[in-house]
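Revision sheet: structure tokens.
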Amino acid sequence: MAEGDKRTVMPCWYVMRDLKRANAKFPAYKLLETLGIEFFTPMCQRLRVIRGKRVREKVPYMRDLLFIHGVPSELDLALREIPTLQYRYVRGGYKVPMTVPERDMERFIRAVHSTESPRFYLPGELTPAMFGREVRIVGGPLDGYEGCLLSLRGSKVKRLLVDIPGVLFSAVEVNPEYIEFV
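Predicted:
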């Protein structure tokens, strides 16, 4: 078996997009739950007015961004079930789907689930001035993580930047007693 063939058989995380409208009752991430396919979509809380009352609800950070775990043959079945779901492709490559290595995705998911209110940033939204000091986390739910602190003026909360290279950044809260400067 050639090296390229091994990658198609091994499950990995594929970056997908959902083309449904913003007000759709059943976006792709809700349909994927019913199909039993492992997926991740970055969620954030937003205030919404329903029948005159303010309600907090969890909604996707980017409504069209999904990460699905599996092999292409399984994912093609899901694509038939949900016609508005598509692969995101690498720029400059001819129909090469974007993938995220297992280790990077598991690290990102663990970091996002470790805090109640993660903040998400696209790569173009962060300036070099926002990357603070290099740190290592010792203890707590993020034990062993290394990265940069998010540097924002006036912020009293320490946040560690965790990224999916080239796709998305997340800033997660870190207790100052777990921070060790590198």
